[in-house]
Structures are given as C-alpha cells and as structure tokens.
C-alpha cells in the first residue's frame, strides 16, 4: 500500500461532501453570470468520486503529493453552442473567479495538417471563500473548468468512455475510428461558426437576440406557450424605445432587471399571467407574453419614450394601459 495515496484517500473521503456542495455553488454562480453575459451554455459540476481520485493518484507516476497535485477534485464543465463563445466563457470564468492558476489551451497549438487532436480549453481557478462550503478548512481549494463546444463535448464523452477508461485495450482500428471522428467535430464547429457570423450580419440581429433573451427570462417565471408573431411585432417596437448605443447590452440589462425585480415579476405573472383568472377571460394579453419583461423594464426606466414609440407604431393603446395598470400594483 502506498501510504501517501492512502492518506490522501482518507482525507478526501471525509471532505468530499463539502466539495460537492461547493461545486454546486460554483455552477450556480456561472449560470447566473452567463445570463448577465447573454451566453447560451450548459454548466455542470461535481466533486470527483473517491475511486476516481484514487485511480488518478495511482496512475500518475509523477505525482508526489496526491492531495496538492491533483487539483481537479472539483470539476466544472461549460458547454457552449459554438467556437465563437469559447473565449466569452473563458472571460466569464475569469471575471467571476479571477485569473486562472493554470491554463491549458490547445486551440492555438501548431498541429501538423495530417494529424487530428482534441482542442482542450481547461482552466484551473481558485474557489472564492464565499462559495467554499468547507470555509477554508482544507486550505485554499481550486477547481478545474473545462470549456468546450457541443460537438467537442460529444466526442469527449465517447473518447473517455472508450479510449481512456476501457476495461481492455481497444483494437487499433477502433481507436483510429474514434480519432477520425475529430474531423467531423472540426467540420461541424467551423460550419456553425460560419452560420453564426452570417447571422450576426442579419438586419434582424438585434430583434432576434432580444426575442431569445425575453423567452429565456419569461420561461424562468412561466411555463406557457405564447404568440410568437405578436412577440416579434411588439419586441420590434420595444427596441425603438432603447437607445441604439444601448441595444448591444440590452439583453444583459433585462437579465439584471429580472433578477432585481424577481418578486414583483412573480406577483404580476401569478395574478395576471398564464393560468390566471384575467388570462382565462382574455384580458391583460401581453402579461402572458415574453415581451412583458421588456415592457415592465421600459415602464420602469423609460416610460415616456415607451409611450411615444407605442403610439407611433399604431399598437393598440389599451394593451399598454393594461401593462401600466399591472406594473403599478407591484
């Protein structure tokens, strides 16, 4: 028995539950930060299993002090939609937790044109004391964040299952087949990136971004269908009530507004939104729509401008009056 590994195993087994709780705190922090940054991603996190911790310690011949050197006891994964968001996610992690202790970024590595390699982006970051459930009892813990695209994530899951953690070594032809799939990952990511760039140049870009954000926030309060055509029409009007210089950051402003006014929004949707008595009677129509979030926000910060653009675009005045009445009660 290796006494160093056994001592580290025993120590980790005692504190793993606190590391698991810390991992969930970190996940929540990144999820909230992603909304503020308008970053569409999924975030997962966990504390390493005790058995996985021991296996890593035993299989790493260079490890002298398992407790100090195995730094990914807490691991997080941020999966973004496309390659253009990789750096956005990296910036978010740095903004939330400070500069990484260590960075592994294979994206810029000089890989021969006849070879394929998985582009890793891993950050080792310190856990903020406020999120550390152990309250510093085990020193100053760090965690690892793996940032990848959806396509890379799919390949990574397969590769770890079949290439890195098999019960027996795979035949060469099978291993080669799995590595060849990297070509499809590279092709998929490049085509998605090309499509995203084209969408950025679309004349309806601001409207599309606004509608997506409104839907995302609305579903946090209501699980209900809505009139998509009406949402796009009213959202187009609402954009005119936002200064052009502020439109790029308006989605983030809406997220901050929703967080700040959460209780008021919950009350408005409960009393007048989907499933309420007024909604069943066909009144207060816009409270059951995602654009209600932006209407309430503009009524709070730019009511006069909202009224002006509303009238100028010929939207029925009674719809806005209903929203004013609902918001005045909160």
From TrEMBL:
Pfam families: RelA_SpoT
InterPro entries: NT_sf (IPR043519), RelA_SpoT (IPR007685)
GO terms of biological process kind: guanosine tetraphosphate metabolic process
Gene3D superfamilies: Beta Polymerase, domain 2
RelA/SpoT domain segment(s): 45-170
Name recorded for this polypeptide: RelA/SpoT domain-containing protein
Annotated organism of origin: Paractinoplanes toevensis
């Amino acid at each position: 028995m290796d006494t160093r590994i056994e001592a580290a195993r025993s120590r980790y087994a005692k504190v793993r539950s606190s590391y698991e709780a810390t991992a969930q705190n970190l996940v929540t922090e990144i999820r909230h930060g992603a909304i503020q940054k308008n970053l569409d991603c999924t975030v997962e996190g966990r504390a390493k299993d005790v058995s996985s911790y021991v296996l890593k310690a035993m299989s790493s011949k260079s490890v002298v002090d398992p407790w100090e050197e195995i730094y990914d006891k807490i691991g997080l994964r941020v999966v973004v939609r496309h390659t253009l968001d990789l750096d956005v996610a990296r910036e978010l992690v740095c903004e939330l937790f400070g500069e990484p202790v260590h960075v592994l970024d294979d994206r810029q590595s000089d890989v021969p044109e006849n070879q394929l390699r998985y582009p890793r982006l891993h950050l080792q970051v310190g856990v903020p004391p406020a999120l550390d459930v152990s309250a510093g009892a085990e020193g100053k813990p760090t965690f690892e964040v793996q940032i990848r695209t959806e396509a890379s994530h799919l390949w990574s899951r397969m590769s770890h299952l079949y290439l890195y953690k098999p019960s027996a070594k795979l035949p060469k032809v099978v291993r080669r087949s799995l590595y060849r799939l990297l070509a499809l990952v590279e092709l998929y990511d490049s085509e998605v990136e090309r499509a995203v760039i084209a969408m950025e140049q679309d004349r309806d870009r601001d409207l599309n971004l606004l509608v997506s954000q409104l839907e995302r926030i609305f579903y946090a309060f209501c699980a209900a269908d809505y009139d998509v055509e009406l949402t796009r029409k009213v959202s187009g009007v609402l954009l005119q009530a936002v200064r052009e210089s502020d439109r790029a950051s308006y989605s983030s402003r809406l997220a901050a507004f929703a967080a700040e006014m959460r209780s008021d929004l919950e009350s408005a949707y409960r009393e007048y939104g989907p499933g309420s008595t007024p909604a069943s009677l066909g009144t207060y129509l816009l409270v059951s729509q995602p654009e209600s979030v932006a209407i309430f926000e503009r009524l709070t910060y730019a009511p006069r401008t909202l009224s002006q653009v509303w009238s100028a675009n010929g939207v029925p005045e009674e719809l806005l009056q209903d929203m004013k009445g609902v918001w005045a009660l909160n």
